[in-house]
């Protein structure tokens, strides 16, 4: 008789003593603080982007960007005393700032969206953009850029580099030359925004990596898919918003929509563009997307 125990939906599970363990090969060990943070986040018990960034203050945020945000989204002038009585309260209520021991600090999301130098506090939020000769990771590195800044700025930097690496080739149809790009920008934009919005920012030592090879590009995002989400159902539009506060801010900036259509649309658009679908996988602690020429 064989007993099959299916995966549960409400992970992580603790012992009766309140301890959490992770499996390593055929053995197990008690989870470290960082590992427990990831386990609880993947189970939806808390959201890392809501946490405060200790040792930071409001002076580490770009006040002009905050003012611009409230002006564009809420039609509020935060420096008009007739409209706003207390800016600190407004920033705390909007979760750009948070409180600890009666002192206010930027939240992780607040720092990533409005920070002067976000990577000074959250190193992992930068992006490494590389052009590699050949089709293997150990090929010669032809170019590498370490991108830093606010998340909206990172998106624009990625798009600029994509256009630089996205070569045009000539295709002759009925004797006429037509210039065609190797990759579709709409697909790249959707995939890089998805990676920036949904990566696991509690993995502090790893950055998103964008790798351009001769035959494809890859976007490698730190963090496996959360509980209840699989490779197959993410392709049908099933979503789990790991960073809900970041999602809200990026939605207000017009980079994403709350419909879960991004991945399915990128699959369809790329299939229509060159007959190939992006390949999604999990490799170690990374979620990987590969787009072929």
Tally of separate helices: 9
- Helix content class: 25-40%
Spatial ordering of strands, largest sheet: 6-5-9-10-12-11
Tell me the span between the first and last alpha carbons. Answer: 49 Å
CATH uppermost class of the largest domain: Alpha Beta
CATH architecture of the largest domain: 2-Layer Sandwich
* Helical/strand content category: alpha+beta
Oligomeric description of these chains: single chain
Describe the global form: globular
Strand residue percentage? 15-25%
| CATH fold descriptor of the largest domain | Heat Shock Protein 90
Mean pLDDT: 86
Radius of gyration: 21 Å
Largest β sheet strand count, sense and barrel closure: 6 strands, mixed
Any chance you could write out the topology, listing elements then pairs?
Elements: E1 21-24, E2 27-30, H1 33-42, H2 63-74, H3 87-93, E3 97-100, E4 103-106, H4 108-114, E5 127-132, E6 141-147, H5 151-165, E7 168-173, E8 176-181, H6 185-198, E9 208-212, E10 216-222, H7 231-234, H8 244-252, H9 262-274, E11 279-283, E12 286-292
Parallel strand pairs: 5-9
Antiparallel strand pairs: 1-2, 3-4, 5-6, 7-8, 9-10, 10-12, 11-12
Helix pairs in contact: 4-8, 5-6, 6-9
Describe this entry's structure for a reader:
With 293 residues, the chain is of the alpha+beta class. The protein has two domains: 49-116, no CATH class; 123-168 and 181-292, 2-Layer Sandwich (Heat Shock Protein 90), CATH 3.30.565. The chain has helices at residues 33-42, 63-74, 87-93, 108-114, 151-165, 185-198, 231-234, 244-252, 262-274; strands at 21-24, 27-30, 97-100, 103-106, 127-132, 141-147, 168-173, 176-181, 208-212, 216-222, 279-283, 286-292. The strands form four sheets. Strands 6-5-9-10-12-11 form a six-stranded mixed beta sheet, with helices on one face. Strands 1-2 form a two-stranded antiparallel sheet. It has a two-stranded antiparallel sheet with strand order 3-4. Strand 9 and strand 10 form a beta hairpin. Helix 4 runs parallel beside helix 8 (244-252), helix 5 packs antiparallel against helix 6 and helix 6 packs antiparallel against helix 9 (262-274). The radius of gyration is 21 Å and the shape is globular. The chain starts with 20 loop residues before the first strand and ends with a strand. 29% of the residues are buried.
């Amino acid at each position: 008789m064989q007993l099959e125990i299916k995966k549960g939906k409400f992970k992580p599970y603790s012992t009766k003593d309140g301890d959490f363990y992770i499996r390593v090969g055929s053995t197990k060990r008690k989870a470290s603080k960082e590992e427990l943070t990831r386990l609880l986040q993947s189970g939806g018990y808390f959201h890392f982007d809501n946490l405060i960034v200790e040792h930071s203050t409001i002076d580490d945020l770009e006040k002009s960007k905050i003012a611009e945000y409230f002006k564009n989204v809420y039609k509020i002038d935060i420096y008009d005393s007739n409209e706003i009585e207390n800016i600190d309260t407004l920033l705390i209520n909007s979760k750009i700032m948070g409180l600890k021991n009666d002192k206010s600090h930027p939240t992780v999301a607040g720092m990533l969206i409005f920070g002067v130098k976000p990577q000074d506090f959250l190193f992992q939020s930068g992006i490494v953009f590389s052009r590699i000769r050949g089709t293997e990771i150990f090929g010669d590195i032809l170019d590498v850029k370490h991108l830093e800044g606010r998340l909206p700025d990172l998106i624009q930097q990625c798009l600029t580099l994509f256009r630089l690496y996205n070569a045009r080739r000539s295709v002759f149809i009925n004797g006429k030359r037509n210039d065609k790009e190797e990759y579709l920008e709409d697909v790249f934009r959707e995939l890089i925004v998805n990676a920036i919005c949904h990566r696991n920012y509690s993995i502090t030592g790893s950055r998103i990596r964008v790798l351009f090879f001769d035959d494809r590009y890859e976007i490698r995002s730190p963090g496996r898919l959360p509980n209840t989400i699989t490779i197959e159902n993410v392709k049908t539009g099933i979503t789990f918003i790991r960073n809900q506060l970041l999602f809200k801010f990026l939605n207000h900036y017009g980079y994403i929509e709350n419909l879960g259509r991004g991945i399915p649309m990128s699959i369809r658009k790329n299939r229509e563009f060159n007959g190939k679908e992006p390949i999604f996988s999990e490799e170690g602690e990374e979620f990987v997307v590969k787009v072929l020429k």
